[in-house]
Amino acid sequence: MNFDDKCQLLIIGNSSVGKTSILTRYSLKNFNENYLATVGLDFFSKDETIDNKIIRIKIWDTAGQERYKSFTKCFFQKAQGIMIVFDVTSKKSFNDLKFWIESLKTYKLEDISSFPIIIIGNKVDLPKREVTKEEANNYAREYHFHYYETSAKTGEGIDLAIRDLVKKVMNSEKKNGNNNIKLNQTKKKSGKCC
What we know:
The chain has helices spanning 19-28, 73-78, 91-95, 97-107, 133-142, 158-176; strands at 5-13, 41-50, 53-62, 81-87, 117-122, 146-149, 184-185. The protein is α/β, with parallel strands linked by helices. The protein has one domain: Rossmann fold (3-Layer(aba) Sandwich). Strands 1, 2, 3, 4, 5, 6 and 7 form a 7-stranded mixed β-sheet that branches. Helix 5 links the parallel strand 5 (117-122) and strand 6.
C-alpha cells in the first residue's frame, strides 16, 4: 500500500514495563502475557490515516536492560517522536524516567521540551498501583510532556497516545520546517534503518 508520509518513533523505558506489549496491541491488536524480554531492538509498523494522509508509522522497540542502553543511542538520533514508558505498579520504573530523560538530553537534544515526546504509564488494568495518575501527570508537566495511561492487556489508551504523538510530529514539522524532525516525504516502501 502506498503512503503519503512516514514517521519514525522510538519507545524507551525499563525492561518489563510493557513496551513490546503496547506495540503488539497497537499493530496486531492482540496481547500475550508470556512475552520474552526484547533483546537489542525490534520494530513495528502500521499505516494510519491522520488528517486525511496515510502515514506509515514505524516504531523502534528497545530493550530496557542496562547492557543495551548504549545501543539505543543511535536510534535517538533517528527518532522523530519518542514514547517513554513506565509501569504504574512499579515505583522504580517511574523513578527511572529521570535516567531516560537525561539520555534524551545527552543523545538527542538539549531542549527536549520542543521535541515530540510523551510519557506513558502502562498496566493500568492491574489493581496494585504504586504511582498515581496525578503524580505522573505532574511529573510530565515539569518537562512539558503529555501523559497517557494505557493497558496493553485491554488496549485502553494505546491508539490515542500513539496517534497524538504522530500528530505532534506532524505539527512540529509544519511549525519548525527543516529542523531535524521533518517527516520523510516519500511514496516508496520503507527501507532498512541503520
